[in-house]
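Hi everyone,

Forwarding the result from last night's run.
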Amino acid sequence: MRTRAALMFESGRLDVHEVELEEPGADEVVVRMVAVGVCGTDLHSYKGEWERPTPIVLGHEGAGVVEEVGADVTSVRAGDRVVLSWAPGCGECSACRRKRPAACAPLSTAFGRGTLLDGRTGISFEGETVYRGTATGAFQERLVVAAGAALPLGETIPLEQAALLGCAALTGVGAVLNAARPEPGFTTLVIGAGGVGQFVVQGARIAGAAVILVVDPVEGRREQALRLGATAACAPENVKEAVRALDPEGVDYVFDAVGAPETTALALRWTRGGGTAVVVGLPAVGAKLSLDPLDFTNREKTLTGTIYGSDDPAVALPRLLDLAARGELELASLVGPSFPLDRADEAFQASLAGSPGRVLIEP
């Protein structure tokens, strides 16, 4: 089976070529991709901050339509609209047994190798292996994945909006509802108002936050955060004054949607005594965080992390769909500019430039 894909042969550039896909196995499906978001994970690889084998097809946050199913597949049928999950998990490791497939050890190994869970990629170009970003590789017209990676969507949400559910929404909303689990009336600071940060803001609003302060260097993203429920927003150079105006001791919860050592340090700085800082964004490989032990002894702070919303995507997605159906989760206004597959590299440049909405590639 042949399809077109955006290949990265070296960091900082994508080129579209026709590739060969292996036919689906008994437990796999073919998905015709309709919309795929450019996620921070993709940008790390594109910028060379994460070392990955090449050529590679990036992309994992997407939605599409099932075209073909393997003989043993019962969860979806041809014609079903689906959202991709990059974490079906092996089902056997300790993380999977705890219903945390995103922390699956074999899956993590597959990420580093650029393969599927079973060690193969199922994609080739001119006879050479093509690798997969995040064990998915969605920036292509058609995609072969395990049936467990194609989550049924139903018919109500446009696929362009549904793409955001596959990673940004599950991660951002889940960081609040599942990792932090705050009581209503809490105060919070959200560092970074990109795709994931905008869903952290919504998660905080849904959870009943009394105060949601957002810090981001891009004015358009700050304005978007205010529309989504933030009560205040500021540029990074003004965060000290903004937090102290709320409470000189800091806020109850801080969510670092960037994940750089500098932003995590900022999160801890403005977490009040007894409060919690949650690292949501992913750092570059090799990044190190310097900690002051007194933050954890004298001030009894908690620092924790979250991956993919700290839940099983197959369980979390129906909850998000219900929130969207009730009007509590906004999707439409978070969709940013869309680019055809032939302009995939332009899409990445738009995302790096700080687009307020999620940049989409529409194969």
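The domain at 2-157+331-362 is CATH 3.90.180.10 (Quinone Oxidoreductase; Chain A, domain 1).

Cheers,
N.
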